[in-house]
């Protein structure tokens, strides 16, 4: 005897599945939507922008800002599209500006920081400045994601992936949706 499962249960399961797969879909779509005539650097920059916006959309601050302030710190390779300014899928504008690692405003005037190439002293100074503030950090450079950064991007010709430092997530004061954390674990497990 076949008994149909309640429709609401199937809808809930599908909804959770779609929510869990959304960051992966964003990254895949970002890569697929780049023009065949664009350069590899432009494609990477576009894909990085989509992944960063996806990560930011799954983050929650203790007090949600009307306008998200993303600060770029250090020389960056893939932040060209971010610098142009953008809007999240929710309609919230993202104000992007460059600051020096030693800038005292970082802790109070940035909800998120995107780290480029920084030396050890600059990294230490930056993470000291954001300590105790709800700031999400995303590292672009070849960062093993062991010290400081919450998210560490891994940019290749085929995709933009990321690692998550759970210790840094706990210290950041920013809540990250569990599906994003699980997505990082699944990607790390792939050969």
Throw out a few tags for this protein.
single chain; 191 residues; alpha/beta; Rossmann fold; seven-stranded mixed β-sheet; two-stranded antiparallel ribbon; 7 helices; 19% strand; disordered N terminus; disordered C terminus
In CATH, the homologous superfamily goes by the name Response regulator
Number of discrete domains: 1
Decide which structural class fits the backbone.
Answer: alpha/beta
Q: Share of helix among residues?
A: 40-55%
Percent of sequence in beta strands:
15-25%
Task: Compute the number of strand runs.
Answer: 9
Any idea of the CATH topology?
A: Rossmann fold
What is the average per-residue confidence, as pLDDT, rounded to a whole number? Answer: 78
N-end to C-end Cα span:
43 Å
Largest β sheet strand count, sense and barrel closure: 7 strands, mixed
CATH class: Alpha Beta
Q: Mind telling me the C-alpha Rg?
A: 18 Å
- Overall shape: globular
Separate helix tally: 7
> What is the H/E string?
HHEEHEEHEHEEEHEH
Stretches with pLDDT under 50, minimum 5 residues: 1-35, 186-191
CATH architecture: 3-Layer(aba) Sandwich
Strand order of the largest sheet: 3-4-2-5-6-7-8
